[in-house]
Amino acid sequence: MKLGDMLRTAFMNLWRRKLRAFLTVLGMVIGTSSIVVMVSLGVGIRQSTIESYASMGSLTNITVSSWRWVPSADGSSGTSTEKKLDKKSVETFKTIPGVIAVMPQIQTYGMIKSGKWVSDCNIMGIDQEVAAQFGIDLSEGRYPAYKRGGSTYEIVMSQDVLNWFYDPNTGRQATDNDGNSRVTLDSRFQLTFDSRNIYQSGMGISEGEEPLGKMYRLEAVGLVSPNNNEFSWYCLMDLEALKKLAKENPSMNLDTSVYNQVLVKCADTDAVSSVKAAIDEMGFGTSSLQDAVEQAEQQMQQIQYLLGAIGGVSLLVAAIGIMNTMMMSIYERTREIGIIKVLGCRMGNIAGLFLCEAAYIGLFGGALGLGVSYGLSQVINMLVGGSGFRSVIPLYLAAGALGFSVLVAMISGLYPALRAMRLSPLTAIRNE
Amino acid sequence: MEQKPIIDVRNVKKVYHVGSVDVHALRGIDLTIAPGELCCIIGRSGSGKSTLLNMLAGLEPVTSGEVVIANKHLERMTQSELILFRQRHVGFIFQSFNLMPYYTALENVAFPLSFRGVPRKVRLRRAKEALKTVGLESHMNHKPSQMSGGQQQRVGIARALVTDPEIIFADEPTGNLDSNTSDDVMRSICDTVRSKNKTLIMVTHDPHMAEFADKVINILDGKIIDIHYNEQPQSI
Predict the structure, then answer these.
(1) Domain shared by A312 and A349, yes or no
(2) Which of A214, A220, B112, B117 is packed most tightly, with the most Cβ within 10 A?
(3) How many CA atoms, within 13 angstroms, populate the side-chain half-sphere of residue B203?
(4) Among residues 135-164 of chain B, which lie with CB inside 8 Å of chain A?
């Protein structure tokens, strides 16, 4: 029997018993949609969790520090070991497969003066070549460069620092009546690392004290994006410029031959764990958001299994419904099956016909169920959207659900199909 | 010259086990039927005639003995092989017509061809031809419920012929028809079978129907008690 004929005959057999076929399909619709909606909730929660982590910083970044925590054998205590992070180690990181960029960082603390206003700030030295790759986003302007020999240094301001400007003599905030800072990117700025320049100005220096630190002219070339990532707290300067400043200001107490930390960018999230392991091996301490995400994913997976199992119960009920319908159908059609056997329908074809019928039920039930799921998913997102609890139906879930419902239907139809196949052709000739 | 028989039955026995009792339906049947013969098996109900027909058509296994049809041993075949055998060699006419109620006459006749993988166009063309030979070309698109018993049985005849089998089995083909229609249908069966040079094996309890056949086999209590030839069968 040709496949096309088989599909058509099976469809006609279903069509002749429209109401019953519809009810059975309805069971499958409920089964499929309950699984899909449940799993889509799991997928949605997982996505929003990962997104919330991603908003804290890039998931492909690894932060390498010179300190490494080595737990003792029983895990209850441990020791910290230090390994120097220098230019050489940065070059080694670049050779690890999966690494696409490496950015050493130094951090220091300085004071910025603008007229009578003053603000404290954390300054991070960055490499403008690769800064964008590490998710150091600017909301305005460009990355700071190092002007060799110039007396003006470029800086990218942080919004927080702009907001913190105050008058040290009166303690007044540098904000106008609307709450906006009077200090803007266009203001004149001066940078110093010696607090005496700010707080004891005009008092001169007593004998035996170190000479005052220099005041540097600053040009604000940009603004760090205030979005909640790990860099929005820092003002940014060029790494080499900051190193030069550190040498000129011993009071900073910054060893310019080593880095506070090094950022390593991986090609994708899959590469993170292997790169991390490779750097751990060298004796450095590493941390990445991926650790937290992985832990969260494990929990999410358990939630997904639970949700899927709840949906699975109704699919199981639907499957039993299919089996029941098919068995009924076979009892009803005993004579018909006998006739087509006498007329020369092969055993495999008979089983095939009934399997096709079951598959149709699964297909229609699955397809309608998907439609219902998309509708329900929209309703859920409309009602509780924005609370981090949402329903997402990815393509693989839709395709998988359709395939799965056909598969479940065919498995339910298998026993009835075999029963039909084994029926004796004699029933056809027996005269009632 | 004696033709090689198309059906050769040797010492066939059939025992049904009903509870702890053995019912001997056939007690050793020997029979040969030549190609092109119109053969009628006649007997009272319970004589074993239907059992014999079922065995010849490969619908029931024999308990012992040999059934050789078209040089093939039916008793050695599996279920699947028997179905293939029926596809190639056998057409079947039922007492209660057994048409598919939701198909038209044309679709009913074309139905067995679909099991043989014949494309739809060819199926419908051959079904039309078969319906023409039984004189039903005007009822092709009628459903069985819209046709009389005689017409339905003629659709049944067309369905048995459409696959061009060598042997046609008919189990009380007129059992559900009144006597006038019976004669018409009988004539229709015999005419078509003769014109196409097929072999017909028919079971009936009606001696009048036996008059249409060339060869009449009388069965009683599972044994052949008499075989005679009609010098002038009614169907000619």
Answers:
(1) yes
(2) B112
(3) 25
(4) 159, 163
Residue closest to B174 by CA, chosen among B189, B164, B162, B193: B189
pLDDT in tens, A376-402: 999 988 888 666 678 889 999 999 999
Q: Report yes or no: B114 and B127 within 8 Å, Cβ to Cβ.
A: no
Nearest to B39 by CA among B223, B178, B230, B215: B215
**Which of B131, B107, B132, B133 is CA-nearest to residue B120?**
B107
B50 found inside a domain: yes
Q: List, as one string, the DSSP characters of A44-75.
A: HHHHHHHHHHHTTS-TTEEEEESEEEEE-TTS
Residue of A nearest to B51 (CA): A426
Confidence check on the interface: ipTM exceeds 0.85, yes or no: yes
pLDDT at A209 over 70: no
For residue A393, what are the CA distances in angstroms to A296, A313, A378, A401, B158?
A: 20, 20, 10, 10, 55
Tokens for B2, please give them. Answer: 């004696």
Contact call for A429 and B115, based on CB within 8 A? no
Q: Looking at beta carbons, which residues of chain B come within 8 Å of A14?
A: none
> Same domain, yes or no, for A331 and A184?
no
Identify whether residues A222 and A168 lie together within a single domain: yes
Task: Provide the Cα torsion B192, B195, B197, B199; round to 10°.
Answer: 30
What is the number of domains present in chain A?
2
Q: How far apart are CA B132 and CA B136, in angstroms?
A: 6
pLDDT tens digits along B93-138: 998 889 999 999 999 999 999 999 899 999 999 999 999 998 898 9
A112 and A212 share one domain: yes
Cα distances (Å, whole numbers) of residue A399 to A254, A368, A387, B142: 58, 13, 28, 43
- Asked if B49 and B219 count as a contact pair (C-beta separation under 8 A), the reply is yes
Together in a domain, A236 and A94: yes
Cα distance from N-terminal residue to C-terminal residue, chain B: 23
Query: DSSP string spanning B61-124?
Result: --SEEEEEETTEEGGG--HHHHHHHHHHHEEEE-TT----TTS-HHHHHHHHHHHTT--HHHHH
Residue that is written with structure tokens 């069965």 in the block: B219
Residue type, A9: T
Q: Which residue has the tokens 């993988």?
A: B117
Angle between helices A289-332 and A18-54 (to 10 degrees): 180
Using alpha carbons, list the distances in angstroms from residue B4 to A260, B73, B199, B213.
Answer: 105, 15, 13, 20
pLDDT at B1 (0 to 100): 44
A252, A287, A322: which is the final residue of a domain?
A: A287
Domains identified in chain B, total number: 1
Listed residues A287, A312, A344: the one ending a domain: A287
Q: Provide the shortest C-alpha distance from residue A12 to chain B (in Å).
A: 9
Q: How far apart are CA A375 and CA B67, in angstroms?
A: 64
Nearest CA in chain A to B100: A336
Facing A344 at nearest CB: one of B79, B96, B112:
B112
- Tell if the CB–CB gap between A345 and B171 is shorter than 8 Å: no
Residue A339 to residue B114, Cβ atoms within 8 A: no
Q: Which domain holds residue A360?
A: 3-54+294-429
Q: Does B87 touch chain A (CB under 8 A)?
A: yes
DSSP B2: P
Interatomic CA distance for residues A91 and A102, integer angstroms: 8
Residues of B in contact with A345 (CB under 8 A): 83, 115
Question: Is B13 strand, coil or helix?
Answer: strand
Task: State which residues form the domain around B52.
Answer: 7-229
B130 φ/ψ sector (left φ>0, alpha ψ -120 to 50, else beta): alpha
Residues of chain B with pLDDT under 70: 1-2, 235-236
